[in-house]
Amino acid sequence: MKVRIGYGFGAQRGFGASDFSGMVDALEDLGFDSLWLSERVTADSPDPIIGLAVAAGRTERLKLGTSVQVLPGRNPALLAKELASLDVLSGGRFLPAFGLGIVHPAEQQAFGVDRTERAPWFEEALPLLRRFWTEDRIDHDGDRFRYRDLGVRPKPVQQPPDIWLGGRAPAELRRVGRLADGWLASFSLPEECADGKAAIEAVAAEHGRTIDPEHFGAMILYSDGPIPEPVRAVIASRSPDVDPAALVPTSIPAIVDAIDAYVAHDISKLVLVPLHAPTDWRAELEPIATAVQPRQT
């Protein structure tokens, strides 16, 4: 089983140009597997595709993921062009992960899709992305999109890129099993991830699909001090019976222990997410890299 460790940043984290470039350069130099950026219109975080394009231009090895990009509200033909371009210009390093978007009035207003329409939009658009990436011309008659003999170019280097989804609710896990190539969990203990993986694989089998057993991952939030109250509130709302300390390591040894616990449950793609704002990225990342790199196999 290949264990890979990347770095991610929540939607509330903003960056200046030098801050962002310093972080990207350190991740590349220190051997981290990937960089993941989240999408939130109303937050300080950069647009993930713009941010990942900047990162692609500064790196040669680092993989580039969205965690996650909102799909409802977007034209799949134009999005297929945008994402294929990033994959081509990065040499096939793009890792797409999609979601429905958070339940928040401002975010839903920005994307222009009613909450009740998000899932139907998602389930029509996602298969279209794969078709645009792999077929020369497509015809499609759906409730939201209609295409006749439409081809989108360039085609991505990866044929096609693996599509990952997030989520932990039963309906979300079923969607992963039906439509996705991988699952990236968040706010979930290792045991919960193991249960989610089993549920996804069962649904996939029902639909005559298989998901690569190495395509299951989790985001590990960590803090250099007390867990921020907003994060405690999110954990309480999603997992009221879970002690936040069980989900958020507050030391490097605890991060290593968390990685080992997920890997023991066959969750092998881990994304570390800092809950603080380092002033020196290399100083932040070097000791973590020293501790966690032996876990990458």
Structure description:
The chain is α/β, with parallel strands linked by helices and about 300 residues long. It has one domain (about 5-195, about 205-250, about 280-295): Luciferase-like domain (TIM Barrel). It is built from 11 helices and 12 strands. It has a 10-stranded parallel beta sheet. A two-stranded antiparallel ribbon has the order 7-8. The termini are close together. The mean pLDDT is about 95.
Indicate the topology:
Layout: E1 4-9, H1 17-29, E2 34-37, H2 48-58, E3 63-66, E4 69-70, H3 76-89, E5 94-95, E6 97-99, H4 105-111, H5 118-134, E7 138-141, E8 146-150, E9 164-165, H6 170-179, E10 182-185, H7 190-206, E11 216-222, H8 229-238, H9 244-247, H10 252-264, E12 269-274, H11 281-292
Parallel strand pairs: 1-2, 1-12, 2-3, 3-5, 4-6, 6-9, 9-10, 10-11, 11-12
Antiparallel strand pairs: 7-8
